[in-house]
């Protein structure tokens, strides 16, 4: 026999690309450890209870069931920002394969417990389904964010819209069609803070392709930046390193790094200075300085 159902709030997270074949087992272990640490630190920072017995582990995701008396607004006004900040801290300290971007879904409802400590209920199943909403996955994939938040329609209507600190206007309505679920949900990119170019218009201050390509060619032959391991070390010196989408090929990776740096005031100059620590005195470093001077003189 199980216990009677009780009201609970749910927070469910999932790591983007956990099964990517380029991740090693060591990197997946680091990512899993990071997932736990990010959630536990964020919960503590927001004054939310963390009880290991209320956390279900699914490998690349966690289901956290919170007591009914926990203020639901805290799950959407403070927690997402804290989680995103902890993700950036994790990413700044880890190599590409161990870095994290996550989806997080919130909902509430009745939960029933069995004699073995397990839990179930239609609302618990429902929140796991909306976590896999195609719109949420594509929004995160096409952004610079580390976290996308998905709120069920009941949670959005009864909690989010009544709390300005939860940024209700930043959410957009999506349709969820996952397995047996057909429902509405609300999606918000929590930290998609990099400037985006308008359609058909280059970003102000962005490099033209020829200048960008010249910088890429120099960086590809610069000692300390010509290998992935070297680039990992250089990026640790950049405060926005966690926002750099890393690519599997050397050229693609360097292009992605340089383009991300262009989105930050002084970002390219900061990259050059970080490279200098490893390549000072090299011929390619002198070329890089010349390229940067020409770029800044345009």
Summary, kept brief:
The protein has helices at 25-45, 74-77, 79-92, 122-131, 134-141, 153-158, 209-220, 228-235, 250-262, 267-279, 283-296; strands at 6-15, 55-57, 61-67, 102-113, 119-120, 147-152, 172-178, 181-189. It has 298 residues and is α+β, with helices and mostly antiparallel strands. It is elongated and about 75 Å long.
The major sheet is characterized as: 8 strands, mixed
Shape: elongated
Span of the ends, CA to CA? 75 Å
**The CATH class of the largest domain:** Alpha Beta
CATH architecture title of the largest domain:
2-Layer Sandwich
Alpha-beta classification: alpha+beta
Provide the succession of SSEs: EHEEHHEEHHEHEEHHHHH
| Beta-strand fraction estimate | 15-25%
What is the number of E strands?
8
Total domain count: 2
Q: CATH superfamily name of the largest domain?
A: Nucleotide cyclase, GGDEF domain
Gyration radius from CA atoms, angstroms: 22 Å
Helicity level: 40-55%
User: How many separate helices?
Assistant: 11
Q: Could you report the average pLDDT, rounded to the nearest whole number?
A: 87
Name the poorly predicted regions.
194-209
CATH topology name of the largest domain? Alpha-Beta Plaits
